[in-house]
What we know:
With about 60 residues, this protein is an all-alpha fold. The chain has one domain. About 90% of the residues lie in helices and about 0% in strands. The chain is elongated and about 45 Å long. It starts with a helix and ends with a helix.
Amino acid sequence: MRLIIAILLPFLVFFTIGRPIAGIICLILQVTLIGWLPAAIWAVYALGQYNTDKKINEALGSRR
């Protein structure tokens, strides 16, 4: 679901993953038509990093 949001409303993804400053910057970038594509790519990348970090933390948490 977050992937669809990342493509349609990129700035919203940053708020859902706990990065509000990046969300505001992404919103400013998304306001322009040319900036929407880089904003969507950035949001998808950040979402992927968030998911990877979450999996790493879960794996390390289970080892302790």
